[in-house]
Specification:
Mean pLDDT: 90
Order of helices and strands: HHHHHHEHEEHEHEHEHEHEHEHHHEHHEE
CATH architecture of the largest domain: 3-Layer(aba) Sandwich
Strand order of the largest sheet: 1-2-6-5-4-3-7-8-9
Shape: elongated
Structural class: alpha/beta
Distance between the termini: 46 Å
Length: about 375
């Protein structure tokens, strides 16, 4: 995007009392961000949801000077910007009505390639919660997922650190502007994240600290991801807000169950009990939920070596699934001529051996 075009996008994002939804409506109505600042107040107030006060603020154009400062700031600090019309803007987020008009980030990441997973939870993580978080990332690292979280204390920082420890890319979504990392003790981690992913914020450099902004940023965490996993949460908290946003965006929501009566398990157990989240206990559960293909990092596949030890019936199942992936159990029974009573135990045994995967809808896929 040309600097002049970006300038007017930034200026539009800085208009008072105009969020991303109104900003997009305004641009659509007048034709471009630049045209917003050329229209008269009488024309602007005719735009749906834009009243006289907002129209007057736009026509006075006080934000143009602020936008000029912002352009200088991002150039000086090597900050990248993506607007919702850019091809590199995250396609998952673009489909969300309240997605930011633009966002600022530092780092290097392809927002439109890979498996994106949000991991969130309480700031007061227990040892159980940290263990669940670490085990999950270790179990799914073979898929090279991009781990998204909020750089907060507790589960968030545990997820970021574990991603870095496993050489995975990770994204930290801030509730502050990029120059004001919060909490400040996570500044060094934020620097490491920019080298293995990115740190991003929708807030410009002149934004003052406000705790309410952390709630707004939770929608970005949810919007960036294919699924949101809540590890631990109180009955009320930011993690549950993120889960709610994920549900609104039709994304998968998962939660680790916890002890009955435990303060930091009430939120997760509540999500599961009300069918707002799928119960997961391991990375395998997440793989099945998201229908991820099982991959191995080594050239010597032990599953191939197991093939010679399979029974004739098991070999027929493997051969059939090679050419007919994602087949139902009924079709397998018919095509392989195996009684259903016997087939169920065969498939379960083969699944435990890692030869096949059971997918949603009782469909099966060959892993060999």
């Amino acid at each position: 995007m040309k600097p002049q075009e970006l300038f007017f996008y930034i200026a539009t994002s800085m208009l008072p009392d105009i969020g991303p939804i109104k900003a997009k409506q305004l641009i659509s109505y007048v034709g471009s961000p630049e045209q917003i600042f050329k229209e008269s107040s009488s024309t602007l107030k005719k735009v749906p949801s834009i009243g006289q006060a907002i129209a007057k603020a736009i026509s006075e154009q006080n934000v143009l000077a602020l936008a000029e400062k912002e352009m200088e700031y991002i150039a000086k600090n090597n900050i990248s910007v993506l607007t919702y019309v850019d091809d590199a803007y995250p396609y998952r987020m673009k489909n969300c009505e309240d997605a930011p008009l633009l966002f600022f980030y530092k780092g290097n990441i392809d927002f439109n390639n890979g498996k994106f997973v949000s991991i969130v939870g309480t700031r007061n993580a227990t040892e159980y919660g940290k263990r669940c978080c670490k085990n999950l990332i270790n179990e799914i690292k073979v898929h090279n997922p991009i781990i998204v979280s909020g750089l907060a204390f507790g589960i968030d920082i545990c997820a970021h650190k574990e991603a870095l420890a496993n050489d995975l890319q990770t994204i930290a979504v801030l509730g502050t502007q990029l120059g004001q990392i919060s909490p400040t003790c996570h500044v060094d981690i934020a620097k490491s994240i920019t080298e293995h992913g990115c740190v991003l914020s929708e807030y410009h450099s002149q934004t003052k600290f406000d705790s309410k902004l952390f709630v707004r940023r939770n929608r970005i965490i949810a919007a960036l991801s294919d699924a949101t996993i809540v590890v631990e949460s109180k009955k009320k908290g930011g993690a549950l807000i993120t889960a709610d946003f994920a549900s609104q965006y039709n994304r998968d929501v998962c939660a680790f169950p916890g002890n009955v009566g435990s303060t930091y398990s009430e939120g997760c157990n509540g999500l599961i009990k009300t069918n707002k989240a799928a119960l997961i206990e391991s990375g395998k559960d997440l793989e099945q939920l998201l229908n991820w293909d099982i991959e191995t990092k080594t050239n010597n596949n032990p599953q191939r070596e197991l093939f010679v030890h399979l029974s004739e019936e098991e070999q027929s199942i493997v051969a059939f699934l090679e050419t007919n992936p994602d087949s139902t159990i009924d079709r397998i029974a018919i095509e392989c001529n195996i009684p259903m009573s016997k087939l169920s135990s065969l498939l379960l045994s083969m699944e435990f051996s890692g030869l096949i995967s059971c997918l949603p809808g009782k469909r099966f896929r060959n892993n060999t």
